[in-house]
Amino acid sequence: MLAFPAGMAYAKRYIKMYKYILESAGDINWMAIFALTTFFFIFIMAAVTALLSKPEMMNKMANMPLEDSYSFTAETADQDEK
Amino acid sequence: MAQVEKFSYDNAIVRNFAYATIVFGLVGFLVGLLAALQLVFPEANLGLAETTFGRIRPLHTNAAIFAFVGNGIYMGVYYSLQRLCKAPMYSKLLSNIHFWGWQAIILAAAITLPLGITSAKEYAELEWPIDIAIALVWIVFGINMFGTILKRREQHLYVAVWFYIATWITITVLHVGNNLEVPVSLWKSYPVFAGVQDALVQWWYGHNAVAFFLTTPYLGLMYYFLPKAANRPVYSYKLSIIHFWALIFIYIWAGPHHLLYTSLPDWAQSLGTVFSIMLIAPSWGGMLNGLLTLRGAWDRVRQDPILKFMVVAVTAYGMATFEGPMLSIKSVNAISHFTDWTIGHVHIGTLGWNGFLTFGVLYWLLPRIFNTKLYSVKLANAHFWIGTLGILFYAIPLYFAGWTQSLMWKQFTPDGFLEYGNFLETVTQILPMYGLRAIGGALYIAGYLLCMYNLIQTVRSGKLQAYEPAEAPARPKAYVPHKGEHWHRWIERRPVQLLVGSTIAILIGGLVEIFPMVLIDENVPKIESVKPYTPLELAGRDLYIKEGCLGCHSQMVRPFRSETERYGEYSKSGEFIYDRPFLWGSKRTGPDLHRVGGKYSHSWHYNHMLDPTSMSPGSIMPPYPWMIDNDLKYDDIADKIRVLRLLGTPYPEGFEEKAAADLEQQAAEIAEGLRKDGIDDPNLEQKEIVALIAYLQRLGTDIKPKAQATN
């Protein structure tokens, strides 16, 4: 069985196009530098936002797993065990 | 205040996934034990191709990752997502399709992998029809998950849900990217990428399968179930925000650390190393966040086996995520790579982090959905201690074995010769460690049997509350943001934007590493003398894949004197341009084979495959008598040639019509050589062994090999 020959031909043509674009860009180090910069940007944004968040909001979020509507808690389960 | 609405949580689907993870856990562990025993007693393969190490090793890894951990993920996600969203699952039908579809995929893997139907890519061995099924079932899971999130009653998304979203999108991208292949037949395909490019895509996938299947969803479970079990909120929610964004962004870059000192270009190796070391920060942030959640509750840890399991799980996560970056430092990797150190490392992660967290969640969750209490706390405690002992017996001997063997590989005499020129010496030296490892695995299973008994009795003592009533206020249609709120408050309310943000974060690393590699020719210098495989060699290569030879033999001579002395010239990226898939391997239980071509006679290979100990006394390689007996099937050779040419291998037009005749002629020549050496079988040229010999004799001969030591 031979699948997708026409699709492959199209794909090859597009790969050639992207290859040309990349090669035209010359030195590709900018991609790595761009990515590293993006990472630090995201990291700093997340850190600053987290650190400046209101404690009440953080407490509310942190308590979400403990506030589902189920009546069992680990404490009561422990007492049952004993 | 919005009106309170009544609804119910679907516990039946949670129960189903819990049962599946319990059953497949046992299967995965037992297959692993069988594989471990074969390294000490090769005859433990029962003399069958289907139960021999090369074929069951992928069965073990797939069962552990996708059946045991996979079902564990779904169990935890289906339980926690409903409660964090204060909404039932979006669709019961989709939940059931997801459950049964996933189990059908596991069944397909359990049948095809022992039959040798494999694409040879680690943790992605399943062939293309099953790959498509995985994609479809994964999409069903995604629709169900996002549907639930969109109709939630809770305004904000808890951090566990972010981890679930990041998991879903990343696994989607990885699965598609690493399984781009062109089918030859129903159960055979060739990957679009070849050689070094295929290796980079595979380990971009392989590493991130660990990151986004074994880690991020389990971090989500940790952020939900650890506070539940400890009955106190997570230590720092702020830290969890930083943990999430830093982790998902950095993880995706680290894949090339699996390919240090290989033919991968240096810049890609360096990127992998740098980001792997950076990974310590978010990983340990998450670990500390988990452990510090128990501040003030450590007295309960002493008594509560659930918390004990969770504490050891989080500690194992911390150990594995410290060790991983250390192993990514090139000088450490030069010693650890291809050895049992890596096996020990990954089992700290799977047995400790995934296994123990799953056990903790099972012990916590099943009594609750069955409205009962745990059958025996004492049995759970016994399971904990036996399991912990099992992990130690498993990992410590393998660390010792890894260092020992690697140092033996690298040891030179004062005269400059290899001290242990015979590879087998370095294997027999560590056999006692393999024995201890098998004992460790057996202990882990013994503990697990207690767990199963305990859980079965727990379930029998209760009654499933299939649909648990709940109530919560409806989510206001128009949310009024707080004055001066941060962007993160904004994105926490928007799952689609969170999905887009996560996608961008994980795509950047992948694109930067893979795109230039795939698209720019100079990264893979061509070597004039490297030619495509002949039809018989190609058939032999596919048999090599079928038998899982790459589970024990690498095909990558690294540029170290200790390796070039032992094997010959180091491997060049240009030598692999027709290798679909690449077969570099990740472990040397046996020697590297990249320069084995022409090193031994045809009859040496024939006798070695019939009985490895006849050529290498003391060898732990299993015999392959079926390759001597089985007729070579090559009715699809024309299709293979056609597909490979389509992918770029320069076979001449029309060669597919002559391929069968070419194959028969080369087979006759090899059979003739074997007969000259006294091997007397009238139908030699029709047997699988002839094709395998053709392939082995070709390996690494496109550029002139030179080796001094014996394998």
Note down, in words, how this protein is organized:
By secondary structure, chain A is mostly helical. Helices cover 73% and strands 0% of the residues of chain A. Chain A is elongated and about 60 Å long. Chain A has 4 helices and no strands. Chain B contains 26 helices and 4 strands. Helices cover 63% and strands 3% of the residues of chain B. In chain B, strand 2 and strand 3 (188-191) form a beta hairpin. By secondary structure, chain B is mainly alpha-helical. Chain B has helices at 11-38, 53-85, 92-112, 128-150, 159-178, 195-230, 237-251, 266-278, 280-292, 298-303, 305-327, 330-336, 340-369, 377-410, 423-428, 431-461, 487-492, 495-519, 535-546, 561-567, 602-610, 612-615, 625-629, 637-647, 655-676, 688-698; strands at 4-10, 181-185, 188-191, 467-473. Chain B has a two-stranded antiparallel sheet. Chain B is globular, with a radius of gyration of 26 Å. The interface between A and B is large, with 50 and 75 residues.
Number of helices of chain B: 26
How far apart lie the N and C ends of chain A?
65 Å
Widest β-sheet, arrangement of strands of chain B? 1-4
Oligomerization category of the chains in this entry: heterodimer
The rounded distance between the terminal residues' Cα atoms of chain B is: 77 Å
Give average pLDDT of chain B, whole number: 93
Low-confidence stretches of chain B: none
Radius of gyration of chain B: 26 Å
Average predicted local confidence, pLDDT of chain A:
67
What's the order of the H and E elements of chain B?
EHHHHHEEHHHHHHHHHHHEHHHHHHHHHH
Order of helices and strands of chain A: HHHH
Name the largest protein-protein interface in this structure. Answer: A-B, 50 and 75 residues
